[in-house]
Protein: GNAT family N-acetyltransferase
Amino acid sequence: MTDKITPSGPQAAIRPATAADVPAVREITHAAYHHYIERIGRVPAPMESDHAQNVAAGRVHVAEDAGGVVVGLVVVHAYDDHLYLDNIAVHPDAKGSGLGRRLLEFVEEHARGLGLPEIRLYTNAMMWENQKIYPRFGYEFVERRVEGIYDRFHYRKALVADAP
Structure:
């Protein structure tokens, strides 16, 4: 990031990513996950994603700070019965600003807008910080599963339907 990040928090503008955002998506993902490489002994899956393809498919939404700088993102996949949260990343310079909470709220709004009853996600077992974060936001632990080279904790959040 070349510009200083302005606090984002609940006021962050979240919009669908465009092709012009791909470098920022790549940079933020790298910055948010790079420190895990040593801990888990391999590059985290989000760092190996095809960011351009995800953007082109409409799966990526980015959050901009007050100065219009992209500082966070989510990658989501809609299925018939749930919204899968593939990646949530906040640039380390924006950590503690409330942006992560705002992005999770956006994912819920997006799922509800699509009429989906739940959100699913997983996190690497070695990313223990996430095992504390997701339950605080209403996600329940489903199972721990080893998938190939990845040891993952799976979570889900059932969305309560809005009253008519």
